[in-house]
């Protein structure tokens, strides 16, 4: 920001008025001391008249400062106040300079020395305050000093001429000093204005960034919701179709039948990939909403390795890669689910971006920590991109144009999960030499290991049980109905509270339901929690309920969690929904 001359002058004048107040106290004190010191050496009437004039002018200058502070004049009036102050400085300098004539007595060397000492102190003390307006300092220093120098030169003699020369030299030195102070103050003012401008720019940039981040979150939530609805419905329709194919014994083993089964399998795989992308958006929103809860405990790494090996072995084998997990007895303090998600992301990336060779997963002890590492023999990553890959929507290298990489959220989510856990994540890699992604967690002592939990036995919901579904999206509603009916469930479905209430009233014999499945947003401001309450009121006894939503915004996630009902996100795959049904008897009602 460039400081205008008007702004600079206004700042200098403001400083001058602020800094001069303390000098006036010194003026009053030195005047009183001078009267006392010179009382026996000069005419009393002249001394008192001089002292009265100095004090009167001093109080007048104080009144000028009070007026300035009360009015707080705009920058455009700074010159007016500067000249007014300079005139008072000129009068003040003249009164103090009068000492060099009125009280100069060559027969009293001590008096001459005293006057010279007072004047030297006055013009030196005035430098910090009056230098903010150089004309004001000159108006004070010149009339305050030159009469004394003149008196010395007029008296003559080596000593007095030397005094005169010293006085002029001292005045010149103070004028130069005043000029340097003015320039230094001007530079400080310029830097202050630049800093203020930078701070303003930073505030504006911060506001823009926050606005952009909010807009991004809203956009992602809206886009995710709109994408999840048809994906959710399509996935359930495909699962229903697969179920029908499995049950249809008339297809036989013909080529067309095999092609149809393969096509359905490919559709499921494609939808699974799309679901993974949408899940990344969900994870980002849940982390931003603070909806991810950490349940720290002792995690046996070998158990995690066994689970991950089962998950990725087939994918690695299909690419011709060797996926190897190094056996370990180490354990760490972490959250089992979140740590598994972190390692799963590392391994998925390693398998995806490694064209040949191997992916190795292992761990090493580092003092009181364990570093879990995922090695690959891929193309590697340039060190300058190591930090960038952990940022949102970051995709490094030309590989982005060669294959689908998703949204670039995976590693950003990994870092935020690690921060929640208090873990460190990082990368060691060089181009052409593969990569090592790692997460470092606190080591758990073997004595802290707990026996593996017994498998949870799911109690099945009997075939033919009634499921109540309410969803205002027709495709999603029909998809759930179709899927459930292929698994021999009875379904009562509707798009609104009024419609579902009407259908339930038409079934007076219905005394219970195996489960209620409600979409969270039902239109017209109605939410799934309200729908569940209405449905429960028409049942003989409360039924377990779940809420399904395609909305990934942080606020929406908090609202759903506050309801206390289990939350499932669209697109919902058939296996997840059916597993939830099988656990229906254990759900809160």
CATH C-level category of the largest domain: Alpha Beta
Largest sheet: 7 strands, mixed
Classify the beta-strand content into a percent band: 5-15%
Number of helices: 18
Ends: how far apart? 64 Å
CATH superfamily of the largest domain: Response regulator
Give helix % range: 55-70%
Judged by helices, strands and strand pairing, the structural class is: alpha/beta
Using the alpha-carbon principal axes, give the shape. Answer: elongated
Q: From the 3D structure, determine the CATH topology of the largest domain.
A: Rossmann fold
Set down the secondary structure blueprint.
Blueprint: H1 5-19, H2 21-38, H3 44-71, H4 78-97, H5 99-102, H6 109-125, H7 127-130, H8 134-155, H9 158-247, H10 255-289, E1 297-300, H11 301-318, E2 322-325, E3 331-334, H12 336-353, E4 358-366, E5 369-376, H13 410-421, E6 424-429, E7 435-444, E8 466-470, H14 474-486, E9 490-494, H15 497-505, E10 515-519, H16 528-537, E11 545-549, H17 554-563, E12 567-569, H18 574-582
Parallel strand pairs: 2-4, 8-9, 8-10, 10-11, 11-12
Antiparallel strand pairs: 1-3, 3-7, 4-5, 5-7, 6-7
């Amino acid at each position: 920001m460039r400081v205008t001359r008007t702004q600079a002058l206004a700042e200098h004048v403001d400083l001058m008025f602020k800094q001069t107040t303390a000098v006036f106290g010194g003026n009053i004190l030195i005047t009183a001391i001078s009267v006392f010191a010179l009382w026996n050496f000069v005419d009393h009437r002249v001394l008192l008249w001089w002292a009265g004039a100095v004090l009167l002018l001093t109080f007048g200058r104080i009144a000028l400062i009070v007026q300035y502070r009360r009015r707080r004049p705009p920058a455009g009036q700074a010159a007016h106040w500067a000249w007014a102050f300079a005139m008072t400085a000129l009068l003040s300098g003249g009164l103090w300079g009068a000492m060099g004539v009125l009280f100069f007595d060559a027969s009293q060397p001590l008096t001459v020395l005293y006057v010279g000492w007072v004047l030297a102190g006055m013009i030196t003390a005035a430098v910090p305050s009056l230098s903010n307006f150089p004309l004001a300092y000159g108006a004070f220093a010149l009339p305050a000093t030159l009469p004394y120098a003149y008196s010395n030169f007029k008296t003559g003699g080596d000593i007095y001429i030397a005094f005169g020369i010293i006085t002029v030299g001292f005045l010149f030195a103070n004028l130069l000093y005043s000029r340097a102070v003015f320039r230094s103050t001007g530079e400080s003012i310029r830097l202050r204005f630049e800093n203020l401008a930078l701070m303003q720019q930073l505030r504006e940039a911060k506001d823009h960034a926050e606005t952009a981040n909010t807009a991004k979150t809203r956009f992602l939530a809206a886009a995710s919701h709109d994408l999840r609805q048809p994906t959710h419905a399509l996935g359930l329709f495909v699962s229903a179709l697969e179920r029908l194919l499995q049950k249809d014994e008339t297809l036989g083993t013909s080529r067309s039948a095999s092609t149809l089964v393969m096509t359905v399998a490919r559709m499921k795989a494609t939808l699974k990939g799309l679901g993974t992308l949408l899940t990344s958006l969900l994870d980002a929103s849940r982390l931003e909403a603070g909806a991810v809860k950490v349940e720290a405990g002792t995690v046996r790494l070998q158990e995690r390795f066994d689970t991950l090996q089962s998950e990725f072995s087939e994918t690695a084998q299909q690419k011709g890669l060797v996926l190897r997990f190094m056996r370990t007895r180490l354990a760490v303090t972490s959250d089992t689910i979140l740590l598994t998600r972190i390692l799963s992301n590392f391994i998925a990336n390693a398998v995806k971006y490694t064209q040949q060779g191997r992916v190795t997963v292992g761990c090493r002890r580092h003092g009181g920590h364990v570093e879990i590492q995922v090695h690959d023999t891929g193309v590697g990553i340039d060190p300058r991109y190591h930090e960038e890959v952990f940022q949102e929507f970051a995709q490094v290298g030309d590989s982005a144009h060669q294959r689908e990489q998703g949204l670039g959220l995976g590693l950003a989510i990994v870092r935020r999960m690690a921060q929640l856990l208090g873990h460190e994540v990082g990368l060691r890699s060089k181009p052409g030499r593969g990569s090592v992604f790692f997460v470092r967690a606190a080591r758990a002592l073997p004595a802290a290991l707990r026996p593996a939990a017994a498998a949870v036995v799911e109690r099945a919901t009997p075939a033919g049980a009634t499921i109540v579904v309410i969803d205002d999206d027709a495709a999603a509603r029909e998809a759930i109905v179709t899927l459930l009916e292929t698994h021999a469930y009875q379904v009562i479905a509707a798009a609104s509270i009024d419609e579902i209430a009407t259908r339930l009233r038409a079934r007076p014999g219905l005394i219970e339901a195996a489960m209620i499945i409600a979409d969270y947003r039902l239109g017209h401001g109605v939410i799934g929690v309200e729908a569940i309450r209405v449905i429960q009121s028409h049942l003989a006894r409360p039924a377990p309920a779940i809420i399904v939503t395609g909305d990934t915004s942080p606020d929406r996630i908090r609202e759903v969690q506050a309801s206390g009902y289990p939350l499932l996100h669209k697109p919902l795959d058939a296996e997840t929904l059916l597993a939830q049904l099988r656990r229906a008897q254990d759900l809160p009602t």
